[in-house]
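Hi C.,

You asked whether I'd gotten around to modeling the 285-residue construct. I have! Everything is below, sequence then structure, no commentary in between.
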Amino acid sequence: MSIELKNLTYTYMPGTPFEAKAVDDISVSIKNGEFLGIIGHTGSGKTTLIGLMAGLLKPTSGTVLINGEDIGKKGYDRKNLRRHIGVVFQYPEHQLFEETVYKDIAFGPGKIGVPGDETEKRVRHAMALMELDFDGIKELSPFELSGGQKRRVAIAGVLAMEPEVLILDEPVAGLDPKGRRHLMQLITRLNSEGKTIIMITHSMDDLAENAQRVVVLNGAKMVMDDVPCKVFSNEQVLRDIGLDLPYVAKIAAGLRSKGKTVPQSVIRLDDLEDCVTKMMGKSND
């Protein structure tokens, strides 16, 4: 499923003294199966942008095309769109409400009329994708689970709708390091299996390691759209808008400042380790 945004603008409370543009003339295309990261300081328009992508908000101007079709045109089936684009908002575990894990994950499919046997298949599959033990926790209250498990149950509820695109708003926020790593591994695996991932995050390290493209927002405008190594090579631009570099990129910059030959493209741990190995090999020679 492809998503194309053309000259998209969204204004809150137009025509009032509180009028403010949250998204200002943004155009971006997202290919099927892509992993796109979206970064920007608080208030830069990230959450509004994903709301427009998912059809949860109607643009003030501009167009959202899903598979080439304008979702704003009269008669477009927005309910059907919800089945193809899943959205996981920040701290989704706060939206858990059913008395058992199974019922919570099965809620979405049940609402759209998926038969019981098919719903169970979907729940089992979604829980497997999130590495949750079906037989072990299906009858537990979701509120008995750990923070990381709750988050994965909430995401499983979205996956049970079998969306082609998964939009995530700060999916690892608030988790401990182990939980962050585990969830990012699962998200990356979903992408490797063909699901389109669109992720808002403040974790530059996660994007450096996993994203194929990064969009940078500032003041409701898009200021960069490129592969991660090129985005993170613009250190001063990022710092000027209140963003940091990935940890590996900082180490690489430090090595360059000491006269070491480390390419600007080094932002991933594996690449840094390769560079260090080569430098050690040359010093031994």
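If it helps when you're writing up: The chain has a mean pLDDT of 93.

Thanks,
B.
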